[in-house]
Amino acid sequence: MIGEKKIQKLIQENSTKIVLIVMDGVGDTTDSSGMTALEQAKTPNLDRLASESETGLTIPVDRGITPGSGPAHLSLFGYDPFKHEIGRGVLEALGIGISLGPNDLAARANFATRSKKGIITDRRAGRIPTEENKRLVKKLNDRINSIDGVTVKVYPGKEHRFVVVFSGEGLSDNLADADPQQTGKKEKFVDALDEESQRAANITSGFIKNVQEVLRDEEKANSCLLRGLAKIPGIIKMDELFGLKTCALASYPMYKGLSRLVGMDIADGLETLDDELKELKKRYDDYDFFYFHVKKTDSYGEDGNREGKVKTIQEFDSMLGEVTALNPDVLCITADHSSPTDMKAHSWHPNPILIKGPYMRKTPGQKFTEKSCLSGSLGTFMAGDVMQLLLSQAGRLKKFGA
Amino acid sequence: MIGEKKIQKLIQENSTKIVLIVMDGVGDTTDSSGMTALEQAKTPNLDRLASESETGLTIPVDRGITPGSGPAHLSLFGYDPFKHEIGRGVLEALGIGISLGPNDLAARANFATRSKKGIITDRRAGRIPTEENKRLVKKLNDRINSIDGVTVKVYPGKEHRFVVVFSGEGLSDNLADADPQQTGKKEKFVDALDEESQRAANITSGFIKNVQEVLRDEEKANSCLLRGLAKIPGIIKMDELFGLKTCALASYPMYKGLSRLVGMDIADGLETLDDELKELKKRYDDYDFFYFHVKKTDSYGEDGNREGKVKTIQEFDSMLGEVTALNPDVLCITADHSSPTDMKAHSWHPNPILIKGPYMRKTPGQKFTEKSCLSGSLGTFMAGDVMQLLLSQAGRLKKFGA
């Protein structure tokens, strides 16, 4: 990755189209069968495409480092994930579909139980049911609208979790968590870590006091903790960085939110892979770059459901022909990170990748599996370099130097 | 690449010899035959050598980034090409065989057509023939010798292109192009981008006015544009950096110029591969490091002539025995970048490399092709690291730390 300033100087216009398909968490480890999910799945279409493509493996953010969805996607989109860290509060907000602007400060919050002496006796308020959470959030929204001119809005999550968004001018986010970390400790308010963030610290601490006032008669959820207070990072948009008109086809809020962060247009209302495919066809003429997200490979990975994961891969394989029929100039299929079913979690294992473009070193017989991609002509490389390869295949990068 | 300061500390003397052969642009993509040029060529000698060597692939400057000859060669010579950018004017001058010193400021220039009101009506003066260019350049050299104590010399290029070299003390090169970019726009003079460069801006702008005066009666070429104004970058010489007495064997001016930039001695008057080979033998005892350039693999690549490229590879193969007969301690054969015949241009695809030295992990059966080198013991790595490997094989690098 040569970096944003250098790549901008090399960008040249073209009318070519790039389709980047992210099979979330598709990579796996070999389980007791001795195979990965991609090896178990019957994927005649993926295999044919792989044999007509360049293949390889990508390291999500660094060797042995397991990435969250945020950094893993930023890498794939051509950004340095260590340079653009996305705060937890922001990710939580994106994850439940909240759209954040540059004046919004978001926080993850827990309902918590507080003793009269200000000791936090339960950091999760007894893991209250989600229905109870919704009732409490409504109560807060009815009673707390603004603090010192800053608009406050609360959104329910699952069980004891919720999200708060503070909207107003001049809120800096260099803030410590308001969380004693252990039960039985004195409650905490938000501390500013620099002078500029003092006003935000006062307002967010004021929010905690308002919550205690509004919920003073609740048995369990009579206070709250605030963590990961953050604003959206100032990321240069993909159209400005790469000269691409970009569109995201994704069904889950988190991925739509991440795409919005880098300036993609978002196709709303998509629920299934079929919806995404229809939208891809419908919008095909209007964009240079499509990000197409396949979520369920990751969901089944995190559930430890190998059968479900294999089935999802096969489902995707059966619709692949409709993507290739569009004949994009550059087609890339890869993952953001692995989600091995044995681990029931994200992992650091490299992602298989295939890139089909006009200028390739093909290796006949390649398949879209971890093992086969290991001997592909792209080798093993950093996911942050993927965009450079796609742009070059698309004739959208000038020569560096003469 | 550990960088110039760190590598200098590790250098140790030795009497070993290194020969670096650059088969310019030799790497290719698989064309309709399913093969690359190296796979099509019959190369018994290269193949035998590869099976006795370590092999791998190198990335010229970064994944997916297509380099010009300048940055690609700097990488191979062990320099960071992003740190030492070579200005366009300098490369253009090197390309037509002009030798530049530290007081020289070079510019690419176009003859252009200017209206009486100072509008550029043709940025290429109707692409005048090269013969006409020579006549105009002579006229300029006859009439413009110096400006404000700075010597000015003009050199013809092809069609409307020429090169100007300004020679004098204190010329800084932080200068904007004097080029309106579009026809129908007002002419531009050279602007200084910092205070230090003001004098150079005045002199180079003065040159444009002198040109307009001298050529005022010409029908088409009555003015000029200046672009890529630059001095040679202050690059530490290879002997100082690596402790090597170095010699370049190349026939084309650009490569001789690049070699001169890094302090190599230049063998002049070479025209063919045979000339280069004879000179290598003649000078073999006098140097530690030879850079041996094979140009035609690139020329045929850029022409889209696969047959010519294959033939050149075979020609080189047939003379390889005379190089290996010299029995250099370390022999490396690689490329600066790929020039696929399907692309008729430089590309970003990795370069095959073989290194034969005293201490190897050999892989029997290796060939000097893109595919075979993919499974070689060197793996795929940055071209900027090649010199580190050559120096180590040559016993010219100490252990780092204890």
Describe the structure.
Two copies of one chain form a homodimer. The first copy, chain A, has 402 residues and is α/β, with parallel strands linked by helices. Chain A has two domains: 4-85 and 235-393, Alkaline Phosphatase, subunit A; 90-230, Alpha-Beta Plaits (2-Layer Sandwich). Helices cover 32% and strands 20% of the residues of chain A. In chain A, strands 11-10-12-1-13-14-2-15 form an eight-stranded mixed beta sheet, with helices on both faces. In chain A, strands 3, 4, 5, 6, 7, 8 and 9 form a seven-stranded antiparallel beta sheet that branches. In chain A, helix 10 runs parallel beside helix 12 (306-324) and helix 11 (296-303) packs antiparallel against helix 12 (306-324). The radius of gyration of chain A is 23 Å and the shape is globular. The model of chain A has no long low-confidence stretch (mean pLDDT 96). The interface between A and B is medium-sized, with 29 and 39 residues.
Topology:
Two copies of one chain form a homodimer.
Chain A: H1 4-10, E1 18-23, H2 37-40, H3 44-51, E2 54-59, H4 69-76, H5 88-95, E3 104-114, E4 119-122, H6 130-143, E5 146-147, E6 150-156, E7 161-167, E8 185-186, H7 198-214, E9 223-230, H8 238-242, E10 246-249, H9 253-261, E11 265-266, H10 273-283, E12 289-294, H11 296-303, H12 306-324, E13 330-334, E14 351-356, H13 370-373, E15 379-382, H14 386-393
